[in-house]
Each structure stands twice: as C-alpha cells, then as structure tokens.
Design goal:
The protein contains 9 helices and 5 strands. The chain is α+β, with helices and mostly antiparallel strands. The protein folds into 3 domains: 60 residues, Beta Barrel (OB fold (Dihydrolipoamide Acetyltransferase, E2P)), CATH 2.40.50.140; 72 residues, DNA polymerase, domain 1 (Orthogonal Bundle); 58 residues, Helicase, Ruva Protein, domain 3 (Orthogonal Bundle), CATH 1.10.8. The chain has a 5-stranded mixed β-barrel. A hairpin with a 3-residue loop joins β1 and β2. α2 crosses α3, α7 packs across α8 and α8 packs across α9. About 4% of the residues have low confidence.
Length: 200
C-alpha cells in the first residue's frame, strides 16, 4: 500500500496529478478542492494517499491532509460509497462543514453532491454519526466526564473545530451549561450548544 507521496508535480489534469518520485511518475486522482490547492508543475508536493485495488483496477487517491484521508476512508465504509463518490463528497465542502452536517443529522448538504441521492446521503449520516462522535469524544460517559472546566474546554475545541468562532462557541456553551456547569459530558455540551447555534 502506498500511504503517501512526496515529489515533483509533473502534470496536472482535470481530476488527477502526476507526481514524479525519484524518476517514477505516479498518477493520483484528486478532488476539486485538492486540485485547486496543488502547486504548479515543477514544484514539490506531499500527498496522503489511499491505494484502491480491485481485480480490474489499481488507483491512487490523494489528499493534502491526513484528516481528509481519514474521512475518505470513513466514507468508503458506507455501503454504496465508492472512491469516486467519496471524493465527490469531500470536494463538496470543507471537512469541518461535512462533519458538522453529519453530527447534526443534516443530510441535505450531502444530497447536493452529484451522484449522491437523498437515500444515500441519509445512509452516510446514519452510519457515520456514531463513528464521528467516537472520534471526537472518545469513549466518554456522563459519569466519567471529569471536571466541568475540562469538559467545557474540550467542547470548545470541538465547536471551534467545526468552524464556529471562539466567541460563538463560548456563548453557546455558557447557555448549554445553564450558567452553573453540572455534570455534562463533552458530547452533551456540544449537542446542546449546536442546537442553540442553529437557532441563532
């Protein structure tokens, strides 16, 4: 498996790039967002890659960040989502917006991706929401939430990671805690805060 490539951009096409690594040219399929950020031919590039192997195909899919690659692999775990569909989803919006949509069970954004209908979008949300929660919150339980300050600080990190400003996140968390903290888990705080942010 080829996990990453670092080399010189030889050629850029509409959906792919050829990277020269010590005299070997690797053709890597990339999404629109990645393509727009690629350096020009002759410049250096580092891509995190997914090696797709099938009886009749061997292809590389490239991403500029390990987070995008991880999310791409998550998408491939959903029934009906292949590499091209996964790439199309990642190309639709910033990663934080896609994660936010899944956590909030908003399949509408995913349904706007060409080739992804409402049913497939709903399946992506259904299958990935729990896994994203595990990734962001770990195996936390309300009883083991730890000190309130730590939970709020971690919730603030999650909300800013989803694209909200620090000020917005702090205001939403203050309302989520009711002003007196309590024994909320990070997940509970983020869930309540997101509801308040949506209303706002």
């Amino acid at each position: 498996m080829i996990a990453s490539l670092q080399g010189t951009v030889l050629q850029r096409a509409a959906e792919s790039v050829i990277v020269d690594v010590h005299g070997v040219g690797y053709q890597v399929t990339v999404g629109n967002r990645t393509f727009s950020q690629l350096p020009r031919p002759g410049e250096q590039v580092h891509l995190h890659t997914y090696t797709y192997v099938r009886e009749d195909a061997l292809a590389l899919f490239g991403f500029l960040s390990p987070d995008e690659l991880t999310f791409f692999k998550l998408l491939l775990s959903v029934k009906g989502i292949g590499p091209k569909a996964g790439l199309a989803i990642i190309s639709r919006a910033e990663l934080r917006l896609l994660k936010r949509a899944i956590l909030q069970e908003d399949a509408a954004l995913l349904a706007t991706v060409p080739g992804i209908g409402p049913k497939t979008a709903a399946r992506v949300v259904l299958e990935l929401k729990g896994r994203l929660k595990d990734e962001m919150f770990g195996q936390e339980t309300p009883a083991a939430a730890g000190p309130v300050g730590e939970a709020v600080a971690r919730a603030l990190e999650v909300l800013t990671g989803l694209g909200y400003s620090a000020g917005e996140a702090r205001d939403a968390l203050q309302k989520a805690t009711g002003g007196n903290g309590g024994t909320h888990s990070v997940e509970q705080l983020v869930t309540v805060a997101l509801r308040g942010l949506d209303r706002g």
